[in-house]
Amino acid sequence: xxxxxxxxxxxxxxxxxxxxxxxxxxxxxxxxxxxxxxxxxxxxxxxxxxxxxxxxxxxxxxxxxxxxxxxxxxxxxxxxxxxxxxxxxxxxxxxxxxxxxxxxxxxxxxxxxxxxxxxxxxxxxxxxxxxxxxxxxxxxxxxxxxxxxxxxxxxxxxxxxxxxxxxxxxxxxx
Length: 174
What we know:
Elements: H1 2-26, E1 30-33, H2 36-40, E2 45-50, E3 57-67, E4 72-74, E5 77-83, H3 84-90, E6 98-104, E7 113-115, E8 120-122, E9 125-129, E10 141-147, H4 154-165
Parallel strand pairs: 3-6
Antiparallel strand pairs: 1-2, 2-3, 4-5, 5-10, 6-9, 7-8
């Protein structure tokens, strides 16, 4: 049973990268999975885009998490718990914008992916937040809030890129 759970977690993680890569590619960007050293810094992927305003090359660091269980949603915000150590990694000051992306898959692994000659369907979706400006963690853990309006989609990503291209900062919404 334990090996099965580990294997499911690995598949789930790989599907979260597939989702990220598909959205970023469709939005015209480059998505690179980072190595172990960057992962230890809380960075799972780096995204690169061409900006159209003041900033011409836009890089974004990404931390990916994924869940199978139904997320806790209150007031249109997903509640997600992090340890203090994780939170501190994800809120470090950086010259590169940072996105925390939560990938949600159906509870039943058989429902995660289906395909035919006409389509490839990856079930459920991802939500994003910036943790810049998040209140500090007090204690051993904290809960972050991810607005359900922040669906990680091509359109949302293009809006973020335009904002960053105009030298605007992505801020945490509590």
